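Protein 1 of 2
SEQ + STRUCT:
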Amino acid sequence: MKLLDKINDKVYVIAEMSGNHAGSKDRAMEILHAAKESGADCIKIQTYTPDTMTINCSNEYFNIDGGTWDGENLYHLYEKAYTPWEWQADIKAEAEKIGLDFLSTAFDKTSVDFLESIGLEFYKIASFELTDIPLLKYVASKNKPIILSTGMGTKEEIDAAVDAIKQTGNNELVLLKCSSDYPAVTGDMNLRTMVDMGKQYGVPVGLSDHSMGNVGVVAAVAMGARVVEKHFCVSRKVENPDSSFSMEPHEFKKMVEDIRTVELAMGSVKYGPSDRELANLKFRRSIFCSKDIKAGEIITEANVKVIRPSYGLAPICMEDILGKKAKQDIKFGTPMAWEMVE
């Protein structure tokens, strides 16, 4: 099934492994099995090396000041976090064996070429590469679906990115709202932007969420997100560059359960009673005799009343029967019917 068909069928949930393997291939395999058990539809990794991301330089331009990775050097951070390319075909094969889709983020042409060689079926582009138009065009030229995060992106930057992709003839695009902070804070999510992106660009939208908890994801689903992405680990005690803002299996499982519950609650456009409501129609209001009425007696608001349940005439008939004579004796508690009225 194609990606766009999958996300039309149900909200598509991506578990982002990123650097949570902490340098262990066995842990990478453990993560994808835990993701499957926690309800993920897809496991995502990242395809880069320190040298495809930056240069091994320690001057002030390459040292991080503030935030989760305060004091880190970019090159050495990527050394800690990257997923060795020699693992990736095996991770893909194991994911597919257990029924998980496999996805990776490409960061340069060499990573795209590598991912093509192992048969990647669709691509993720990170927020930080939103403005790398040559990369976007190269990925789009592979004619495979693209999930593009838009963190930090201005409207003009997102316009340029979408135009670059569509100019290649590739229209299989999903845009994700993202707050590129680690961890992100709820007040910076601005989920209404996600909804607006769907209207502006005419593509499915979703949320790449770096905040703690699942409030943002559940809210996004209620607002129309078709794809959600969360960082996933087996335990935050396994320290690595991504662990502090990643979900553990029990948290991720609860998030997926909440997503599926919200989907059920959203349902479809449907007027009228549900099957479960049909039995309760009898508790609507109708007109009942509220005081014994003799034959020939005038029907007034003193002897009939609109009450529950609904076995009598509909409330709208009240004006039609008031002032009329009763054809027969009518006992207190009897539902009113037309044959009782002259």
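Protein 2 of 2
SEQ + STRUCT:
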Amino acid sequence: MENFNFYSPTEFVFGKGRENEVGFYVRKHGGTKVLIHYGGGSAVRSGLIDKVRASLDAEGIGYCELGGVQPNPRDTLVYKGIDLCKAEGVDLILAVGGGSVIDSAKAIAIGVLYDGDFWDHYCGKAEVKQALPVGVILTIAAAGSEGSPDTVITKEDGMLKRGAGSDLLRARFSILDPELTQTLPAYQTACGATDIMAHVFERYFTNTPEVEVTDRLCEAVLLTMIKETPRVIADPDNYDARANIMWAGMVAHNNIVGVGRQQDWNSHGIEHELSGLYDVAHGAGLAVIMPAWMEYVHKHDVMRFCQMAVRVFGCHMNFADPEATAMEGIRRFRSFLHSIGMPINFAELGAKEEDIPVMVEKLGIGSGKRAGFMELSAEDVTEIYRIAAHASL
């Protein structure tokens, strides 16, 4: 196990009806003027925004609002949010939604206190030195942004999807009411589950030896998702299954399962170019890319893939042919994703094989390599996209 620091200051407020307490937690964490940031009309139609307003009014907290966050959140709305916060004297941003809303809120939080272009933090020109505090009411279990230091934004000029991160961007508080996820369509639920599993796998596939504790934590989250996701697809009102998934989504990405070990985020990076180009759901893109990445890199450490196959997907270990076990585990992962309604190849996703060179170029690898579990050149990434394009069960 490697040396590490772990800092996770978020206060998690979990359970039924806890969104009605948001005014108390805004006040507790120093907010006096709030930007309520949300996505489409569902938060309004469901009455959730009305509950937020009422709770803030009860605490005497002022607020302004900015809706319209899209999946793969855009820089154009972030700029509007920054201007609004400066004009209104906002001192806390309240994200009401899923990962896209939270990521947009974090970007606004960076930009309000930064003299330059907030995008500097997403293209590697600047580090996050300060940010407004962010609070969260989570409505989709997926991205884990409610507990993570990360944010991903799409720049509309060129449709570049890039990330930034800092412990300063961890939410001060996150309200997690599983009931708020019960109205999600099955497809969105499945996309979220895929994203959660990907966050774990990006940590699970490591070159760091002797990490049994975090291996077992990763496996526990993955087994939970394998059990609970079909339950909520079959019964969207299953509160207990929703609750387990919601907490798994947070645990998967606040890094408790990833400390002390090298991590690999190449699948996310490769997928970002796919969803950036086609504007598809991130989880759906990961369902296509992650198994393809696994197929391509599994020989780098066959026994780690065998461990996944046996511990997570219940395969029998073939000691005479470990690679067969590894490939069976990958096949079972892809089959699971298919069973919950996820695409498994470019055709099902709506992507085109002829666009692979464009996506590879946008990754910006050039003649170098992307670090990770296995270093990847532009040629390696091209082959992963090709495997994804033609994948089958």
